[in-house]
Amino acid sequence: MPDTRPSEGPVELVQLLTPEGERVHHPDYELDLSDAEYRALFRDLALTRRVDLEATALQRQGELGLWAGCLGQEAAQVGSGRAMTPDDFAFPTYREHGVALTRGVDPLSLLGLFRGVSNGGWDPFERNFALYTIVIGNQCLHAVGYAMGVQMEAARAGEAEHSSAVVAYFGDGASSQGDVNESFIWASVFNAPVVFFCQNNQWAISEPLEKQTRIPLYRRAHGFGFHGVRVDGNDVLAVLAVTKRHLQQAREGAGPTLIEAFTYRMGAHTTSDDPTRYRLAADLEAWKLKDPIERMRSFLWKNQLADQDFFDSLDEESEALAVRLREGCRALPDPDPLEIFDHVYAEPHALVAEERAAYASYLASFEAEPGVPA
Amino acid sequence: MPDTRPSEGPVELVQLLTPEGERVHHPDYELDLSDAEYRALFRDLALTRRVDLEATALQRQGELGLWAGCLGQEAAQVGSGRAMTPDDFAFPTYREHGVALTRGVDPLSLLGLFRGVSNGGWDPFERNFALYTIVIGNQCLHAVGYAMGVQMEAARAGEAEHSSAVVAYFGDGASSQGDVNESFIWASVFNAPVVFFCQNNQWAISEPLEKQTRIPLYRRAHGFGFHGVRVDGNDVLAVLAVTKRHLQQAREGAGPTLIEAFTYRMGAHTTSDDPTRYRLAADLEAWKLKDPIERMRSFLWKNQLADQDFFDSLDEESEALAVRLREGCRALPDPDPLEIFDHVYAEPHALVAEERAAYASYLASFEAEPGVPA
Amino acid sequence: MKTAETLTMAKALNLALRRCLEADDKTLIMGEDVGKLGGVFRVTDALQKDFGEHRVIDTPLAESAILGTAIGLAMRGFRPIVEIQFDGFVYPAYDQIVSQLAKMHARSRGQVPLPIVVRIPYGGGIGAVEHHSESPEAYFAHTAGLRVVTPSHPVDAYWMLRQAVACNDPVIFFEPKRRYWDKAEVDESLEPTTPLFAGRVARPGTDLTIACYGPMVRTCLEAAAAAEAEGRNLEVLDLRSLSPLDVDLVCASVERTGRLVVVHEAPVWLGVGAEIAARVQERCFYSLQAPVLRVGGFHAPYPPSRIEEHYLPDLDRILDAVDRATEH
Amino acid sequence: MKTAETLTMAKALNLALRRCLEADDKTLIMGEDVGKLGGVFRVTDALQKDFGEHRVIDTPLAESAILGTAIGLAMRGFRPIVEIQFDGFVYPAYDQIVSQLAKMHARSRGQVPLPIVVRIPYGGGIGAVEHHSESPEAYFAHTAGLRVVTPSHPVDAYWMLRQAVACNDPVIFFEPKRRYWDKAEVDESLEPTTPLFAGRVARPGTDLTIACYGPMVRTCLEAAAAAEAEGRNLEVLDLRSLSPLDVDLVCASVERTGRLVVVHEAPVWLGVGAEIAARVQERCFYSLQAPVLRVGGFHAPYPPSRIEEHYLPDLDRILDAVDRATEH
Ligand SMILES: Cc1ncc(C[n+]2csc(CCOP(=O)(O)OP(=O)(O)O)c2C)c(N)n1
Ligand SMILES: Cc1ncc(C[n+]2csc(CCOP(=O)(O)OP(=O)(O)O)c2C)c(N)n1
Ligand SMILES: [Mg+2]
Ligand SMILES: [Mg+2]
User: Fold this and answer.
1) pLDDT reported for residue C261
2) Does A212 touch chain B (CB under 8 A)?
């Protein structure tokens, strides 16, 4: 049987840290960090994992309705998140808890939507971190539009460089959506300052990668006329270096890049999911050996970049964060029912006003009659 | 300014006939036709052009509401159409009049939708030629689904080869639609026996190619893991050879190919359009030198594959076809108004039945009162 | 052979799908996670294992393509049953649904039937996150060329799905997800008594008619039971089909009771209840003793789940409307 | 400075866009063929020439992306005015419209307003091919978070578009394409007397109320003139806004006339008229002397243009309904 697949040579994977924690080098992606910076990255990874574990526990305890965990994807998230400047803007899916953390979004505010007290939870403009997007792929177009705006401002000001760039997060499954592919086209045609960051965790709920593509995903970009690169998504250093470089290029006016962070979803899709129905335990075991946090821990240890005190105090900090999350989560108030009506529109709308008034007086009628619950 | 564009070497264009009518050869695409076959291709081209001219005239005369011409694209259409076997299935846009002709669809039946007496006009299963699709890109997914069906039948029958393959037609503008890109993904993942045939006529109404892509369109396929090739769309021999080969590969189980037929829309987008608002007359003049029909005519002449008799009798045949179209078009009856209700559903539907009955009696009320028109 | 079994609605649907796959090898199941996982609600559980990957197809993550390829497959003679994972994820496919699925039969003057069933779990009440609790049925019922049905209990779920698969028109099959775990005895040996596109009297009554469908049928029956305790005898109609809608059934009931309340989870504004009210006021102008009232969702996005019970019609809101209609 | 000019609706819209671009450099125009060509109806004529390619943007051919990037641009502080080329081509963008454009403000509790205007030429009557004559307004009016308006004549077209661009909510702006060539004097110096989301009495009358909007206003006014010749004095309401809809205006009129006919091109079934009928029968139960009647499109895909006049409400069909409502 002939095959129409184009041959493009071997798949390259950018790595700066081996699974064993050895620092290696790559001709295109250099990274020169101070000891403190290495430790800071580890701290981000550890805190992200702690947030994720705590939220998972809170779901089990019934405090959250659902949780979409990021276990195993911490390096992809922290590396890309830390590559951004405060002026850059991130458009996440629903799983970018590590990115949120690096942006300075309070992890507690991430819980609101999973608890069911909010459909958002934070001000996107405070930390340049958009709200979580649940409809697969939608946010990639928002990211490109935002980047076009950045670009227009520069063009109007007569500046060749952009003040900032944008990161569009999406998953391997999302790569099949029309919106995501349209976002590639627009970014390419307008040469928009955006980095497409695909966390290829190899699963879209129960569907393995091969249901979405038959070639490595980073190569998708080549068909749209821009560069794609695959990075070891469990290597925080490589992710940081690669994302930094391509964000910088975007700011310089070189247009979009697709980064495929090759990683693995070590947990269930969400707390509602049961991965034993569709994947082998052995796969998970193999990936545990590539754990992004253990790798960085080895690196710090081997190179004496951190001592026991550092790890101990980080454990304490993590624990304190977990306690704050636990308590904060339980204390998150249910919204006032009348909030249903409050932000449907920015300006008054007769129908909403009418329905609000009617429901308010309906609710009030129960208060008048004590003992009859709403 | 750095540039993130991947370099992929020079753009290749498959050509078997130069604009001057010289027969040239290509290592991957051979074509060996008899004199009669060469003449038959010329006949298809000439008849297609005649149909197109006649329809354009009919629109000017008020017999058609609109016409979307294919002037300049005859070779792309005839070459790809003649590459198909009767069992293959074509999914056209709204402009594939030349393909229709090669499939054996009566050109008269193409006029119905442009006259406004039908939204379709022929039985898609009679000649394996789907109805024209106006919503840009929709048909590419239908084509892939149909191809998946062909493939499933083979798989169930335990056959490695498919009984047929499918051609999905679309334009350069359409390449930006989510549906078209999703169709690439599905064809690739399922390895469906489909040839994507893009007539890059360099315009989407008033928008030039660079509004849709910054690299040649045939390369789009590489990002999805299958082969793309650019063919001279004004060279009927090259189009025939290239399409034939990739259809055959598809039938053999090698999956999809993207063929970009590089051509030029020599006329307006439709009879409603005014291209002088957005493009230079000089461009058109340049493309006239590459006219697909003149090129084939020179080839036939130079190589004495056809004589004056052939051309004369073809002129007569064309003229007769034009007369038939003209007369047939004028005779196309308006549908019965009650047909509005007749095929909304395949099975009875109470609401439609009720509305039909009410409207029928409303209409009848005018008949009862002569002189009062509906 | 055992023909009667107590099944949840999810299992009844699963059994119906199994029977369809057995009965006609042109039927296919397509969707996200419908294969090994058996769907996020397990409605397609074990079907891929038993019928193979060529009959039960895990698709790439693209709803427009799911519908678009299903249309192509139908043109090749297959009968696809596609699953949209949740109500809020049908919109990427809306173009294919409205412009192709709904119109192809008319466009081709009957030459291209598209016997495709689009299963959509819909509605709220399960404490889910955004986009997982919507009731978009009006968008489809307004669209000529589509049929829209929704069962309210396991027996109907079983039969209506089988009937929908047998239908030669596209059918949007809305499954009330919060009733997936409701149980009933399903007897496959009994032929269904109601045609797919007819409604039924779920509870006969004399004082007032409640028209409802899908997830709200159980709620309305509970409301009727509560009203009975107060001496009110309510008739509850389970509409079952929204396109076509059994207007005759509703009008016949209203002519007896003189009063009508329509209940659905979807927003009241331009919801199915609007059409029912408009038809009934026209056809039963002199029988109506009170205006038709409607109880449903608000003109607001579905709220966070902790307050969803305020958005969803419940016994109190239904009975409040019943009171208002009665006292008018 | 000359402030009054006789303009077609298309030119009035063009002038409004020009004023918006002049007034606020955050406004942008985006769409297919809106640049050099000036749009297939020339509504954006000469704007790219005068304001540049950074203000008037020819986009790739992808409606979902037009909406999706407009949302991103709005998040960066721009105010995009997007054009969808024809009614039937809005559906690829439906997901972005329903799930993002409509919901972002509520999701973010007001932190992310999306001041985006989506211009859509709609309706039939111009002899066009399939997908070019649809009236999909109910799909949008049913959706909370969107505002939906439609002018009926050049003066409203001018002012309503300017008001829509000033609004901080997403506005779906339906332009009655067959009225693009209607002319009227537009005086820019006169402030608009009607707020964007209010209806207006297009013709006062006493015997029966006709509620209509967009392309049907002219038709209904003609019907009213014809009825006058027969001694009937009809009131015609131009609703102008469909979300919110000026129900008070309709009810006040019905309370005076006792009779209501709603007219739109869109299918009657679950069309905007259904909601109006439902509201009016509820609020004016005792004032109505006849059922609310509706005249509109059928439950069928828009037919081939040679028979479109059968699908579209015309004087005869409107007057037939007026007769039926009057004689009831
Ligand atoms: C349009 C749409 N369709 C379906 C879903 C249901 N869904 C939620 S997550 C998911 C899989 C996403 O996979 P991927 O993009 O790889 O991201 P991951 O969850 O692995 O991070 C699906 C199908 C959805 N949210 N949106
Ligand atoms: C979804 C959709 N959007 C917009 C249009 C309006 N429209 C009709 S043809 C066309 C341009 C198509 O360009 P291309 O794909 O290059 O095909 P060509 O007309 O050049 O053959 C546009 C925008 C449409 N038909 N469908
Ligand atoms: Mg994934
Ligand atoms: Mg083109």
Assistant:
1) 98
2) yes
